[in-house]
Amino acid sequence: MRDVAVVSYVCSTTAREAVHNETEMIVPVLHEAVEKSGIPSKEIGFVCSGSLDYLQGGPFAFVSGLDAVGAWPPVRESHVEMDAAWALYEAWVAIQTGEIDSALIYGFGKSSPGDLHEIMALQLDPYYLLPLWPSMVDMAALQASAFLAANGSTEDDLAEVAARSQRNAQQNPNAVRKGNVSAADVLKQPVTHQPLRDADIFPITDGSAAIVLAAGDLARKVSKRPAWIRGIEHRIEAHSLGVRDLTHSESTRAAGVAAGVAQGRVDVAELHAQFSHEELILAEALGLDAANTKINPSGGALAANAVMSAGLARIGEVAQRITNGDADRGVAHATSGPCLQQNMVVVLEGE
Amino acid sequence: MTDVFTAHHVIEYPGGYTRSVGPVIGRFLTGLRDAKLLAVKLADGRVLVPPTEYDPTTSAEVAADGDHWIEVGPKGTVQAFTWVAEPRAGKHGLDKPFAFALIRPDGADTALLHAVDCGSADGIRIGSRVAPRWRAERTGTITDIEAFVPLGDGEEPEPATLHVPAEDEQPVTGINVPIRLEYELTAGVATSRYLKGLGEGKIIGGRAPSSDDVYAASRGTDPKSGEPTSIEVEVQDTGVITTFCVVNVPGLSDLAPEIPYVSAQILLDGANNCFFGLIRGISVDDVHMGQRVKAKWADELLPDHTSIQWFEPTGDPDADYELYKDYL
To answer: What is the ipTM of this complex?
Structure first.
């Protein structure tokens, strides 16, 4: 295996980007990420992005993202219709081939132009589920209902997660929901999607994130402290909720074991929990506890969840804390599909 | 800053999105048409509902025929639920608040997701007993069950209306799902400048400070470098046909003229990219590469593409191939 590190991370999110189109929105993020990497843009070996055409309501909408990359002379490029964490995985594999030494990965999307909760129903089984139009939040609430009944956790525990996210997010300039709130404040909110309250559900977010990966000596040359990817794995389980144990995330657990989460101290973890119960399920699956690990110090996806880049941002948030020297070893998680169907776990370390 | 244009945008599949379902799902849906919940017994003895073409644990094939097909329910037990306070018009089958629930039919080891019409959020809990309320007219879709309804102690479900098959009735092989999504899209700064220009009878482009290349109808960047096209440049409404096609397919768009017509790429004077336009005012047989054309503006100018109706020949001599060969 080649050593590969995150050498640059930039993120920009807001509740509603009503002025710039998607191409205009990602230009500053991409340019800053490349500049911070110290690698000239035309020397970056591969470009890979993640986005979702249904967010813009047009086929091949992702192609316009290339206008922000500057694809001339022609670049080596790929795209996933998934969170850009999976684009990073593809780029990591491409670097492993030895053909290239660096890659630019970006994810982008606006959730505000359409009805995101409804749009995400289009990722569901089209025969048994889509005709019923369960929204993304309805699906998550079913999981929360099953989780609370089986686990012994209560709505108080969910509120603790939601409140901590908002408090942590006060330090995060990209957070769209933040505040010095307590669990008691959260519990005063009405339940909107039993058993979930507004604060348990990610806020609608527009934005993008970008990461530059570099291998071995190149990473050491351009970064004072590269955040090395020591393990990266993603696993998926069955789509149908009715055949899964919704109260545990077996795919996260398996990915965490394969990525080597337990092989060292975990200083920081950024978990792509879009709903507060998901953080509890994920922390359990990865064997993390708040006494030893700072969980979602950025506020996580409950503070800002730009669809298609929020998973990539989890990797970036951990990498940034390692590069800054705030942490030596951390775990990032990204998810895709309804109710944590597919999960990626990345272990990052400083030297 | 230029005012930014927005547009209401709808994507919809006229008549619904039609899919083939295959023999396994087809058999389950055919069962629904007969008001029966069909399930399959997997190799490990677990009973899977709704059936899939593969075992969700081992991925072994599940055959569409055989005695592993059994009937389950229709009564079942709620495993998890949430309350939908605001039903979505045109999407949800009920027009009053309802619950979504995972329901395990009696005799099955897995749950299916469906609506439960239980009056209020207090009318359902984990462990509630429910049964389907079948639609009278059933076509072989998951929505043949209008919703599940709570059952009291010892209460038996309402029987379904009998499905009387037509003489030539076949098993269900497909479904049709209406899909409609609505958006409020933002054109962005560069596109808004361009659209505003159209409303004033001008074609606005832009260029990046680092380059001399001008892009008509820029989306905001120089696509070669990725640099923002921060400098606004007006280009001419005259240009050269670089390449074109004669369209003989009717009905491609509500705005399309009668066939045959010509769609062309036009290198506008002052621009370094091609601009799409229709060519009219000339027989389709006389359209050719290198031909000089000029925009025909509409009488009423609006900030959209209706302002340029089409392009028509100017009658000037053809452009030299060298001028446009890099734009093909």
So the answer is: 0.94
